[in-house]
TrEMBL record:
Cofactor(s), by name: pyridoxal 5'-phosphate
GO molecular function: identical protein binding; pyridoxal phosphate binding; transaminase activity
Segments forming a coiled coil: none
Protein's UniProt name: Acetylornithine transaminase
SUPFAM superfamilies to which the protein is assigned, alphabetical: PLP-dependent transferases
Family annotation (Pfam families): Aminotran_3 (PF00202)
Keywords, sorted A to Z: Aminotransferase, Pyridoxal phosphate, Transferase
Organism this protein belongs to: Solemya pervernicosa gill symbiont
Amino acid sequence: MNTRFSSIMPITNRPETRFVEGKGVWLMDEMGRRYLDFMQGWAVNTLGHSPKVVVDAIAEQAGRLMNIGPAFYNEPMVALADQITAHSGLDEVFFANSGAEANEGAIKLARKWGTKQKNGAFEIVTMQNGFHGRTLATMSASGKPQFELLFEPKVPGFIKVPFNDIGAVEAVIGEQTVAVMLELIQGEAGVIPADLDFVQQLRELTSTNNCLLTLTAMDSEAKAVSPR
């Protein structure tokens, strides 16, 4: 490893390029070379690098109020939650820092619901080739073959079935099933959408079996947990 970066833990094979600036779809390294960025922060920088509207909003908010902790309300939190619920049809919002953290919250919420409402049910049905994050629980929930032998033993309680196969889901639902969890579009599997019929049948199946339906979208970092 280059000694310039020896204090940083190697978690992936990074090139030795060091970026210093970004604007829109362009990145610039310390030598002044420009790069067209097709990754955009692994698909989360949908507005590009340092868009003025985002920079101005961050600066304005930082000048007024920064982090006061989750035990208190703040005005932007309330305003954004109101907008999301008004346009999504959902009742409540839980804000998280990442897709993995949001999915961890969804898993905890489902299991808490199972403890209170379904005699301790805890199993969650997930999809083969699905991706839900890189924490231990979300890797356990994911159906990526690359994750199968990593960081064993995994968190138990996740049953994986083929995507878009309602019969496979129905076959594994039992008394301990608390939720079915899936991406509406499997991103890392190759941008594969769930069939509309499959999703509608899942809604009916989970309602009939007193289970939750959890829909995730890692790239947009949004989760929806729907009651029966």
